[in-house]
Design a protein that fits this description.
Betaine/carnitine transporter, BCCT family; two-stranded antiparallel ribbon; mainly alpha; transmembrane; transmembrane transporter activity; Amino acid/polyamine transporter I; 544 residues
Length: 544
Amino acid sequence: MDNEDKPKAPQEDAGQGIPAPTGAANLIDTDYVIGQDNITSSKFGINFDLHGKVFMFSALIILIFVVLTLALPEQMDPLFSGAKSWLTGNLSWVFLFAANIFVLLTIGLIFTPLGKVRLGGVDAKPDFSYAGWFAMLFAAGMGIGLMFYGVAEPLTHFSTSLEGSSWAPLGGAQGDTDGATSLGMAATIYHWGFHPWATYAVVALALALFSYNKGLPLTMRSVFYPVLGERIWGWPGHLIDILAVFATLFGLATSLGLGATQASAGLNYLFGIPNNNVTMVVLIIGITLVALGSVVAGVDKGVQRLSQLNMGLAILLLFFVIAVGPTLAIATGFFDNLLAYFQNLPALSNPFGREDSDFVGGWTAFYWAWWISWSPFVGMFIARVSRGRTVREFLIAVLLVPMLVSVLWMTAFGSTAIEQLNSGFEGAKNAANELQLFEMLGQLPLSSITSFVGIVLVMVFFITSSDSGSLVIDSITSGGKVDAPKPQRIFWALLEGFIAIALLLGGGLGALQAAVLSTGLPFALILLVGCYSIVKGLMSEPRG
């Protein structure tokens, strides 16, 4: 591309709300001004500044979906079930193939000279300390999932492997307790290791590069400038952003639905509050309203403070389980599980010719679709807090730090639950997924306190997810502005809650999974094209 041949001096402002590069950077020469296609108005004291086509199409289709799902639950339930079965049965390989490409790209960039490129220009300085940066990376990326699956997934994979069932990863290890433990933990770490964080890193790196170094809006369409050129400002770009909104909303709704399910189960376990749809709907409404306060406060005051609070509580709960659980098994298991993960990684990530189709379709494909759906949300959020980092520093941090914490978390909670099962306690194994964490904690000291902390963690992760998601969707639907009026963020935060309620009432967990798979598939294909754009964009940047 002619306008990317050599670095240009930074402009005074790369766009409204987007800081100009500090030092040399290769700005893309375009006449487009961020927000030029926006509709701005102020009625009844409420300000709006939004991209008309992206906002209206996204909001209208989502609202129609919510109304239909709530009005026709009996008709929608089989539709969701059928979509989920078809996608996992026929297209699981697409998700596995795409995720493998993301891993190979991110690891490859770490070891190439392109890793020297600094996000925001050669003289850019980081906006946040390492502590604040890591807390926001982790809390936004994995929170509710770790709470929901921290006991459920290791225990399930161990049990199916030991029994040799059709749901066992890689055929299982029937009758071999040690082999089943190793395989079960390897399969769990596979779902929380390099692949999800590489997916997030690809989107985050692309957005940060094309916004902070190239001067384009902080939206998904900007990533595709090397492919589409000026057409990103027309309908091709509109469609990319609309798909990003759908993927983000349904990915968030899945997490919020899981969080409400687990919080309801925990409240029933501790206080006897009925565990039913009414409780879950009330929880979603209540926590969504609380999230609005954080949305209004913004990233620095709202998200960062809540993220750090949640990280503190999560670390306390983690260390408690390590201290009072099977400490030696957890300590040795951390390294054993990492080794098992790397040993089984080639087989687990193979997209073709798999005999463990139930495991691939029911677990891996859903997870990859979930991470891909979350990637615009988590990726844009990571991009917003990562200006000033080099590509190499950025990728190492995003890939390794959250992954190692996830491995420690899964090892601590999973090993404890497996030890309990091997000692004769089957309460956690026989409980529903959302209740297994509380059943495991119930066998440890101070169970009432730790279970209550678990409920609080789920709720605060719920808030940070809703909060961060609203900021990101608002940026996409306001044409890339990062300082759009707050009423728009409030609208999206409320809509996230409505979608979670609609999906829970319209088909439960199956509906949540179907929605994520349906939006994750087209977005996986879009992200594969985005990988080319990243390399193309990095090659034109000066390296400090």
